[in-house]
Write a structure and sequence with these properties.
- The complex is a heterotrimer of chains A (280), B (311) and C (278).
- The model of chain A has no long low-confidence stretch (mean pLDDT 89).
- Chain A contains twelve helices and no strands.
- In chain A, helix 4 packs across helix 6 (135-159) and helix 7 (163-171) packs antiparallel against helix 8.
- Chain A has a domain at 64-232: MetI-like fold.
- In chain A, 75% of the residues lie in helices and 0% in strands.
- Chain B is an all-alpha fold.
- Chain B has 13 helices and two strands, in the order αααββαααααααααα.
- The longest helix of chain B is centred in the C-terminal third of the chain and has 39 residues, at 270-308.
- Chain B starts with 5 loop residues before the first helix and ends with a helix.
- Chain C has one domain (27-273): Rossmann fold (3-Layer(aba) Sandwich).
- Helices cover 32% and strands 23% of the residues of chain C.
- Chain C has helices spanning 69-75, 106-112, 128-132, 134-138, 144-157, 161-164, 177-190, 207-220, 233-239, 257-262, 267-273; strands at 31-40, 43-53, 58-62, 86-94, 97-98, 113-116, 195-199, 225-229, 242-247, 250-256.
- In chain C, a hairpin with a 2-residue loop joins strand 1 (31-40) and strand 2.
- In chain C, helix 5 crosses helix 7 (177-190) and helix 7 (177-190) packs parallel to helix 8 (207-220).
- The model of chain C is unreliable at 1-23 (pLDDT under 50).
- The chains are: A mainly alpha (280), B mainly alpha (311), C alpha/beta (278).
- The interface between A and B is large, with 90 and 89 residues.
């Protein structure tokens, strides 16, 4: 009996380890393949040229997609970060009541919403009225995505600041709003972490853009015009073009640059905060 | 009692207004999707039960898409949850401390990969491997089960099964991290009680940790389900986008999210758009409900933990 | 600094008191620690402990906080090594066989040497009945009849049966503190150990519950060997046949309880007993 139990014990414990190995393999494979297939597209053309035309032998780059992605993310941050930040301040500093808990709860639930649904919302509110896809629609949609994320990460970051700091500030006669800003400053690395992670997240989104920003083969041509993006291009090029075409290679190149940026942000942020929050 | 300054009040109300944006958004989703689908909502449940999707003939039934969403999510859970639990148990109970950081780091990186890159990898790296090496084996040995049967000699790489597998990988970060938090919250005294009875390590984990952390683990599963159900791009790229219901996992399929992603930009008539918006409403409702269930479980877990510390 | 070793103990038979074999060199001891040292990382917690426990007696370990009494008792059933960075050197002999030796696995050791903890820790997701037989089931007992009997017998043994017999399905955590602790004792007894270690079992309980458990301990020694760590000297005087006094990781004095409290040989012991420190 005992030996059967020991055998079972060893089997279960090894299975746990096997699970970890299985979880690691896809990541390794993705990083390897994206690098292998994408790095060859990393040249100056990639960042400076427009996509190839349909003429045979045409080459090109994804300069407009890089530009577009950056602009979309910039707009999204402009909209989402301030709102999310102040919402987080509310939850942590003024929200020890049913309303604060509700905002927190809904924020958590909204974070998990399917991104395509955000696209639908963007389409109804910003594409139909303005008769077409646009940078604005895309930026707002992505911005809306960041709000709940930033709100809750900010709230958590602020809650980590010890109460003694708030009490000391009040005792010195400092007004509550100044105190809140003080707390914010104190938690700035955690807050910045949350914001950066939210940005990395929306940079990798595709579904909302399909219904809001659309796609464009031109350079940026105005806020109310469709705009190109790395993610949409990856989707479009990899599914509409054959395997050995220039477009296909560009898609992998775009995937490479996207991974570098997005995972670079994630990696950087986690390495920097590793010592401070102990949230390994 | 200091007199409230005006700046205080302004700041406070500013935060309240912006916080209300969150509440407003939640409401807005349902309102807009509700009104946007009003044209087709009228036809009632036949939207969900109908299996024919014919925009030209104005017939809108999403049963095959609902089926696709459900089955791919189910596969994701069946494959992904055990792996995630294994990872969670490893990181919380088994791994020597020095090893924990790098491994949990790797799992977090899985969450950082954009879904379109998952789709790209799934389509061009995973699918061929599955098609050539894995699926034929499955068919040979498990072909007596209807889910592993197929009429075509060459099994396609894009199918419901492939989509399910990609989703399984994508839910590992969320399921394992919430489960791990739940496991770490179990007090050591529980583990000690099990060891003192003469339990082996896996037995101790089973009777003292896993059952105690049950509700947290269930919450993580709900969150994984919500994630899988709502995932759009990665699934669209590997599922084959065919609105069929067959009993086989090897056949291509369609999900609610893929439907919207593929057809929304082509939809011209108001009815067509309304139907697609309604599909979005169904999607939103399902995910919203599972997320609420999960968060309620999690909040109860936190409350119980605080209550139990009186002992 | 001279530690009192067993061989030097001279016990005067008092009236009808049973004659204790002397000098007691640990022969026939149920549990014997020899040259036992223990560390938490670099900090040493036990120094050269030499300590023999007589079968079917209650042995108490007392001493001020931090003296190592909890560490010692946890070394007796190999629980100490579960702590990160913990280390043990030396021997602990159960009926002559070293529990740290290659022949005995920790899992088997812990079944034969049971433990009850300071804070009652029943499994909250299991019913009272399931808690009692949790350890039994691990050992492969599946027979429904045997399980039912074990539930009843062990709960009766700890005087809990009458109180909970109609509510066996309720969660183990739904009982009062004292009841929970008795449940934990029943759970420990269900795997039929030979020794029962108790690490301050009453410090989280009220006086009534404490009295019930002390009464129980007096009866348990008929069947089991009991070792109890307590910070309460009066409790040691009430329940223990033999008492060991520890200070800063060393065993200072070990004697029949009455002797140790009335006629301590070591000045340190006397100072502790008279309340001068600790």
């Amino acid at each position: 009996m005992m030996s059967r139990r020991f055998l079972a014990d060893k089997i279960w414990l090894s299975l746990a380890f096997v699970a970890v190995v299985i979880a690691v393999i896809p990541l390794a494979s993705i990083l390897y393949e994206v690098t292998r297939l994408g790095i060859s597209s990393m040249n100056i053309d990639f960042f400076t040229k427009l996509p190839p035309t349909l003429l045979p032998g045409s080459v090109g780059g994804m300069g407009n997609a890089v530009e577009g992605s950056l602009m979309l993310v910039a707009l999204a941050s402009l909209i989402g970060l301030p709102i999310g930040l102040l919402s987080g301040v509310f939850i942590s500093e003024y929200g020890n009541n049913w309303y604060g808990s509700t905002v927190r709860f809904l924020g958590d639930v909204l974070v998990g919403n399917p991104s395509i649904v955000i696209g639908i919302l963007g389409y109804i509110l910003l594409v139909i009225p303005f008769h077409g896809f646009s940078l604005v629609a895309g930026g707002v949609a992505l911005g809306v995505m960041t709000i709940p994320i930033v709100s809750n990460t900010t709230a958590e970051a602020l809650k980590l600041v010890p109460n003694s700091l708030r009490e000391a500030s009040h005792a010195l006669g400092i007004r509550k709003w100044r105190t809140s800003i003080l707390i914010l400053a104190n938690a700035k690395s955690a807050v910045a972490t949350g914001a950066l992670l939210a940005i990395a997240r929306v940079m990798g989104e595709t579904a909302p853009l399909i219904l809001t920003a659309g796609i464009s083969t031109l350079w940026y041509s105005g806020p109310f015009q469709p705009v190109a993006s790395l993610t949409y291009y990856i989707y479009y090029f990899s599914t509409s073009f054959p395997s050995h075409s220039a477009e296909f290679d560009l898609a992998w190149g775009a995937a490479f640059i996207l991974i570098v940026i997005v995972m670079g942000i994630n990696l950087g942020v986690r390495i920097i905060t590793r010592g401070t929050t102990g949230h390994a | 009692m200091k007199r409230r300054s005006r700046t205080d009040a302004i700041f406070k109300w500013l935060t309240i207004i912006f916080a209300t944006a969150v509440v407003f958004l939640a409401v807005l989703f349902f309102y807009e999707l509700g009104t946007g689908s009003s044209l087709t909502l009228r036809s009632g449940f036949s939207f969900i039960t109908g299996s024919k999707w014919d925009p030209v003939g104005n017939v809108f039934g999403v049963l095959p898409m609902l089926y696709g969403s459900l089955v791919t999510s189910a596969i994701a859970l069946v494959i992904g949850v055990p792996i995630s639990l294994g990872v969670a148990i490893f990181l919380s109970e088994l791994a020597p401390h020095r090893v924990r950081s790098p491994f949990s780091f790797v799992v977090e990186m899985l969450a950082a990969v954009p879904s379109v890159v998952y789709g790209l990898w799934g389509l061009f790296v995973l699918a061929p491997v599955l098609r050539d090496d894995v699926y034929p084996v499955l068919r040979t040995y498990l072909g007596f089960l209807p889910i592993f049967q197929s009429s075509s000699t060459q099994l396609p790489g894009v199918s419901i099964m492939t989509a399910g597998i990609i989703l399984a990988i994508m839910i590992i970060p969320i399921v394992s991290s919430i489960s791990r938090d739940a496991l770490l919250a179990v007090p050591d005294s529980q583990r000690e009680a099990a060891y003192a009875l003469g339990a082996t390590k896996s037995e101790a984990i089973r009777i003292s940790v896993l059952s105690y952390a049950r509700s947290g683990i269930f919450a993580s599963i709900f969150l994984g389900l919500g994630r899988a159900f709502g995932e759009t791009i990665a699934v669209t790229m590997v599922i084959g986008n065919t609105p069929l219901i067959t009993g086989s996992l090897f056949s291509p399929g369609y999900t609610l999210a893929s439907l919207i992603a593929n057809e929304f930009t082509e939809a011209t008539t108001p009815v067509y758009i309304s139907a697609l918006v309604e599909a979005g409403l169904v999607l939103l409702t399902v995910v919203f409900l599972t997320n609420i269930a999960a968060r309620v479980l999690i909040s109860r877990l936190v409350k119980n933990r605080e209550a139990a510390s009186y002992l | 600094m001279g530690e009192a070793s067993e061989a030097d103990t001279w016990v005067e038979p008092q009236g009808d008191a049973q004659k204790v074999p002397r000098p007691y060199d640990g022969e026939g001891a149920k549990l014997r620690a020899r040259k036992l040292n223990a560390w938490y990382n670099r900090r040493q917690a036990l120094y050269e402990i030499d300590f023999a426990i007589r079968p079917n007696q209650v042995t108490a370990i007392i001493g001020p906080s931090g003296c190592g009494k909890s560490t010692l008792i946890r070394c007796l059933n190999r629980m100490h090594e579960l702590v990160l960075g913990a280390r043990v050197e030396g021997e602990v002999l159960l009926d002559g066989a070293d529990i740290y030796g290659a022949n005995l696995d920790a899992v088997e050791v812990r079944r034969r040497i049971g433990m009850v903890f300071q804070k009652p820790n029943p499994f909250p997701n299991m019913s009272i009945a399931d808690n009692v037989v949790a350890g039994l089931k691990l050992n492969g007992v599946k027979d429904g009849g045997k399980i039912e009997k074990a539930v009843r017998q062990n709960l009766e043994q700890v005087y809990l049966w009458e109180e909970v017999k109609d509510e066996l399905h309720r969660s183990g955590a739904s009982l009062s503190g004292g009841q929970q602790q008795r449940l934990c004792i029943a759970r420990a007894l269900a795997v039929e150990p030979e020794v029962l270690l108790m690490d301050e079992p009453c410090s989280a309980l009220d006086p009534t519950a404490t009295a019930k458990i002390e009464q129980l301990i007096a009866e348990l020694k008929r069947t089991y060997t009991v070792v109890i760590v307590t910070h309460n000297m009066q409790q040691a005087a009430r329940v223990a046949d033999y008492t060991a006094f520890m200070y800063l990781g060393k065993l200072i004095e070990y004697d029949e309880t009455a002797q140790l409290f009335e006629n301590p040989r070591e000045p340190l012991t006397e100072r502790y007993i008279t309340g001068k420190f600790g």
